[in-house]
Design a protein that fits this description.
By secondary structure, the chain is mainly beta. The protein has a domain at 25-145: YVTN repeat-like/Quinoprotein amine dehydrogenase (Methylamine Dehydrogenase, Chain H, 7 Propeller). 2% of the residues lie in helices and 51% in strands. The strands form 8 sheets. Strands 22, 23, 24, 25 and 26 form a 5-stranded antiparallel sheet that branches. Strands 27-28-29-30-34 form a 5-stranded mixed sheet, covered by helices on one side. A hairpin with a 2-residue loop joins strand 24 (252-259) and strand 25 (262-263).
Length: 360
């Protein structure tokens, strides 16, 4: 990847920053902020689950699964947490008591993907090729079995309360609760690994083994950019206004501008910055901040509302690979989990260039 003068400045300059740290037993594999942005949920491959305060102090901690935690997510009200693990259990927990109030999909295999509805207290799960929707008490609301291959990604529609999308080797499907058949279907190029609605829900971007594709939902219009991709469900994201799509393509950080459904350029632009094999791509929920992390322990930040948006504004280095990455939804705080069990809360205005070199 090419290096601009601003990138070199980002490496050389330093500015005051606040970093809080905590350590866990085992690799950090899942993180989720509460919607109120005052608590952070952390899951480790030891099966350990913890709730942290905004400043990094541990509020509660317990053994959630006998095996590795696969997924851990807050429900919108902040009263519930959903987790799944390699012990073939999916659980719903009360954040008030710390007790398990429901166990779903018991011993039917791994629940590989979980997603709470942004609007209703409903949990979407995938288990092999089966999609299910549950209440917070573990009651089954809906079940879809039309996929013929294992589901690799899922995402709730950002505005329509009853709609969601899923991806597998047999295609991208969109669904509506209570309906027997998918509302739309698209045959994919390659094997899909990630999908995301844009903020209006009119477009789905997905990564596959064949590259990056953007689908105008319900139509036959698909934009495709070929290339090698990162086999991860976290390898692309939309900015909060839907103007920008970020991804990892051909081992490079890329940014693609959009005007509603139409791209502004023929292909995504390469972002400057020293970053290796990208693991995570994430925009801030309500600001034009883009974070990416790699297998070498680097985290790089860009601001997409700047004229020089291709140049990074912040770096953070570690000797350990980044295993999880989550922006606080209401503050400029980035939670970073590492393979060695270290957790770092990086707080910085990200308005000007900084370089953090700290051992974790």
């Amino acid at each position: 990847m090419s290096i601009s003068s601003a990138t070199l400045d980002a490496r050389r300059n330093s500015e005051r920053e606040t970093i809080s740290e905590a350590a866990f037993s085992g690799k950090i594999v899942a993180m989720s902020w509460s919607r109120q942005a005052d608590r952070l949920l952390v899951g480790a491959n030891s099966g350990q689950l913890a709730i942290l305060a905004l400043g990094g102090g541990i509020l509660n901690q317990w053994q959630a699964h006998k095996g590795t935690i696969l997924q851990a997510h807050w429900e919108g009200s902040g009263d519930f947490i959903a987790t799944s693990g390699t012990d073939e259990l999916c659980k719903i927990w009360s954040t008030r008591s710390g007790e398990c109030i429901a166990t779903i999909n018991p011993n039917d295999g791994w629940t590989e993907h979980l997603s709470w509805s942004p609007w209703l207290p409903l949990l979407l799960t995938s288990q092999a090729s089966l999609l299910r929707v549950w209440t917070t008490t573990g009651a089954l609301v809906d079940e879809q079995d039309k996929h013929t291959w294992p589901i690799t990604a899922l995402h709730w529609h950002p505005f329509s309360q009853s709609c969601f999308a899923s991806a597998a080797a047999d295609g991208l499907y969109t669904w509506k609760l209570g309906e027997q058949f998918p509302t739309a279907r698209l045959n994919c190029k390659g094997y899909p690994t990630a999908l995301k609605y844009n903020r209006s829900g009119s477009v789905i971007a997905y990564m596959s083994t064949a590259g990056l594709s953007v689908w105008s939902v319900g139509s036959s219009v698909v934009l495709h950019v070929g290339g090698t991709t990162t086999p991860s469900t976290t390898s692309l994201d939309w900015s909060w206004g839907g103007q920008w799509l970020a991804c990892s393509l051909n081992s490079e950080a890329r940014l693609w501008g959009f005007n509603n459904r139409a791209p502004k350029t023929a292909v995504p632009q390469a972002l400057y910055g020293e970053i290796g094999q990208i693991r995570f791509v994430q925009f801030h929920d309500y600001d034009q901040l883009l974070a990416m992390s790699d297998e070498d322990g680097s985290v790089v930040i860009w601001r997409t509302d700047r004229r020089d948006r291709l140049d990074p504004v912040a770096y953070l280095r570690s000797a350990h690979a980044v295993s999880s990455l989550k922006w606080n939804p209401l503050a400029h705080i980035l939670a970073i989990g590492y393979d060695n069990g270290c957790l770092r809360l990086w707080q910085h205005p990200f308005g000007s260039i900084t370089n953090g070199e700290k051992e974790c």
